[in-house]
Amino acid sequence: LFFEDAQFQLMGTPIFYVPRLRLPDPTMKRATGFLIPSIRSRTQLGTGTKLPYFIAIGDHKDLTLTPYLATNTSTLEWRYRQAFKTGELTFEGAISKDSFSGYDSRAYVFGRGDFDLPNDYKLSFRLRQVSDSSYLADYDYSDLDRLTSNVRISRVDRTENTQIALTNFETVRTGEDNKVIPSWVFSARKQKRFAPKILGGEALWELEAHSHYRISDVDTDANADGIVDGRDVSRVNAGIEWRKDWLTSQGLII
User: How confident is the model at residue 224 (pLDDT cuts 50, 70, 90)?
Assistant: First the structure.
């Protein structure tokens, strides 16, 4: 819908005028253009405005850019989304220059994706990265104190649970050092449920592997938390369970 010399009137009195205005009609589901602006006020950032601009790149992907101008910051927020035949992904983030942090520029990016693979397997990933430990809290983007990024392949049904994952942890907690936490973790698990023909009942076998790596190579407990600062751990577990119930004539289940 295109308007020329448009007026917004209150009780017959014009209170707003715009020479040209374009709006999507109600039948349109996606259209490039400005979204509803907002006013925001925070102690550190000051008072400012956000003006989102939505860009419909195609039927299955879009980009939203949101300039955020306040007393103490100039920020550009963004979000990218794309849908595929077998899944979808989303990335969002921001880049800022402010007058109170002491950094030349600050930024963060969060991303996620979920996809279907052949043979009922699933592929998923999560990405969380930030330029400094206080950025997310200063701008109220997230209250997370540990950022988890991972990639995972899995298949789960009535008889099987298969999980393979590689995970990265990054702490933004005050006083916690990324060098001494398990920053990289690999885990794999295979569980299979079956019914033994001779014994009856239900059985479950499980095989699990785990390994985690710390950046530090210090072989002492310098921070006195009970764990050697540079200790890396790997393990493999295996187990089998069997269950069968008997009901006695007295109503007891064994």
Answer: confident
